[in-house]
Amino acid sequence: MNNELDKEPTKIDEELKKIEDELDIIKKRITAYYEEFIAKGMENVDFVGYERLILEANLAIEERKAFPDEVKQYEEIREFYIKEITDIINSTLQLENKITYEQYFEKVKEEKTILNLKARLKVLEEAIIKVTEEIKKEKDPNEIKRLEAQLQSHTNAKNKINVMIAAQENLIKKLDKDISELNKVESLPEEIQIDDISPFVLDIEPVANVAALSYHDKIIQKAKNSKVVKGPKLKINLPNSEADNNIYRFKFDGVSYVGNRTFLNQTLINNPNIQIDDPQFNLKAISLEGIANNYKGYNEVNINNQNFYVSKKGIEKYREFFPQLTFIPDYKVISNLDTKYPDYSVDVPLERGNYITVNVSKKDFEWLQNITPAISFRKKIKGYLKETTENLKKSIPELSEKKLNIINLIRNKSSIIKDKIQNKQILINALFHVDRLFIAEKLIDIETVIADEVLQIKNYLEKFQEATQSNKEETISYLFEGNTYIIRKSLVESLNQSLLPLESLKKERERVSDLLLEKTKNRNKAIEADLIFKEEKGNYCYVSIATGSIPKGVTKEGYEKLLAIYPNLIANETLKQAVIEKTKVVTAALNIKEKEKSITDIRQKLIEKKKNTLSSLNKFYEKQKEKIQKMHQEFKENQKIKNAMKQQDAIKKNKEKIERLYKQQEELSTADSNKINVLRVRHTAQNLGLPTAAILGVALTVALTSASLASAEKTQKPLEAETAIEFNLDNTETVGVLEKGLDNLTQQTIDLTTNVNNLTQQSLLNLKKAALEIAKSVNDKEINTEKSDKVVESNFINVGDTFKSVDGLVASSRDDLEQGKMQSLKYDIEMTAVKIDLRLANGSITSVSIFEENAQDKVLNLINEGAEVIAYLGYPQENLDEYLKSKGQIVETGRFKNIEKTEQKGLGGRS
Amino acid sequence: MRYELYDIITLDDDKQYVLSYEAFYNEKKYYLLIETNDQEELLEGAMLVRSEIENDQTNLYMIQDEQELETVHNIFQKLIEAEEK
Fold it and tell me: Which residue has the higher pLDDT, B41 or A877?
């Protein structure tokens, strides 16, 4: 019992000590709070940030008057910050009052404890009793008076002490109440600390910012109302697909397991009583509830919308289990973080893609990083200096004022520029109607003004930037990085806004300059062309240099000069043929602006008139096709005509050659006109057929001559016309021309009207004979045989047999040899057995033997070079053969195959 | 001078034409010219020409080859038919 009694006070003491310790802790914390505030001082609380933000909001509202929605947003921002400041000031003041009471309490505790008061009271009470007894005993009235005064003093003192005790008791009660209040204050989430509401939140874009802030606001409100402190919320939504690696939570014998569908199907459903010993499964088969039970805590984990509350270790366990477990932090995270002595400022992801910036200790930062990879480091808090704050206080209004000034300046300049641009637009419109050059000059003036204005703006900006830099830009960007950016950004935007019209103006000016340049060029060209028209007046061709202008006549030089200036020049009449194929383009008569406008119109019209276009295209096609075909037809006909003309020319030439030959022959014949009678029969080329006629010129020549021919060269007398007989062996016409002196012959021997086909050999023979007879009668002269030797080399005498080659070669016979009259002639049969004699262009005479290689080609070449065929010599084949055989040579019969003997025997006639 | 689609040009027949369609065939550029009346309206006249750049100058040539004409005609026909309204 005694033991128990002994124990009881110990227990009570322990409890009391525990309570006292707790009280001590509370008191210490209160003291710390107070000290902190005293150390910082109210004036050092950073309200500047809020003031600045309110100022920013005001500016933003001012700037965005034209955009009510944005104004509303900024008004909300402004209201938010005003409220924040008010709240902070109020709460700060409240805390301060509480701490004043505490201070008083501490003083009482040290100097006038209740105990002391009560002891003093006891002393006083004893003194009062003692004095009261002495008064009763005392007789002396003076002494009684003194004692009564003393009693009164003690009574007053006693009353005073009683009052003091009552006050102290009240004070204790109040202190208790305050402590309780302070406990509540302690549980307030620390993010309401001024440091935690970071001005850097404004770095987020305005619209998102509003959302973030309002969400922030809600978080604070929630945190204020919340007394339960919970950890971060971790969330996982398990997939619903039937993929094998999906994880399902299920219960087996009252225990929850997690596994994939395969496992579920194969092990649990098919074998409900299986003992699970698969190590992998065991790892997985930890029940969610099991973790929750083993790691109790206040961190909320949400898996498939089921909440578990676990410790930090529990979270790690779940994350090990579900690596895909994602961290969805909410206000509870913030309220659970150590933000009292922050080391880092971090952006914590919130729901709906928002972020909140929180100042946290290094430890919490690391923990956050570990559990929430999405967290992003923002900056270190270190360097949060009093001096900085003061500087900011000073610089912010100054900067804001400067910014306002700049904005106003830009606005003014912008308005000036706008006016100028309007004027410019008016002028541009007029530009296409009046003198462009004049207006262009005006435009340039306007531009100069605008450029000056822009220059001024730039100067202002530079000054502003200098001012910003001189105002410890480093500090500004360090602490107000985001807001400095905002100031600059808005300025740059304003400037860019102002410069935009300038750009378009610049482009317009370039365009106008180009137009003017082109116009000037065209003008210069026109002046030059006028000069050419004046100087080179002529009628070589008529030229028009512009649409609708009357063509003017110029000389060829003038035309060429003009062509150098206007490559697409139209030249009428004379030159038109020369350029008939080229479709000349006179103008591309549109200026750029009109063109742009017209493109759309034209395109639209083309689409509308699609059918018409198609039909036009087809019509053109048909027409052009017909034209081309006609042209080709004409071309062909022309070609025919040309060919015919060529043929005619060839015939004419041949005719001339024949005539020439005839003449020569005649001349030769005339040389010995007294003795020689020549009968020439001429075929037309047509009768003989090309090309033989073309090559040889003469188809048939029958020359009758006498041995007296030898003297022909000597005498050089012309042949007597009377002795010649010529007839044309034409298919259609047979003309016999019997010259003077042959009339009798005609009458006696040949009917010359007979068709050539009927002109038999006998007829010819008869004709020859007649002719010789006549010749004999007419030319009864002796032949000088001696002299005839000289003639032989250049002449030939073939009288008698006629040979005709397969290609029409006909040679005359030479019966005179048989008559012995040719004995005197040096006729070398080896050389001239069958030959063609030609007179070359230089007058010399050459012979080509038919036995030679390519005899015909040689003859052709010579003729082409201007040689004329004089005669063709035939020789009786058998005679030649005999001759050659006699000479011991073998006759190559192939050679002679080319020569068809038409008459074996000699004419037999003899003059 | 070089021409572009929808340019309006005046030819030596003193008529104005719009370069209405263009097509490439055998590495050459062809235009379908539609006669126009001061851009006010499109007339019925049409012409197929071949464009050739010579000395930095665009010249338009009438097509003289029947085969070439036929091919180009087909191309333009298809081109116009393919035009979406």
Answer: B41
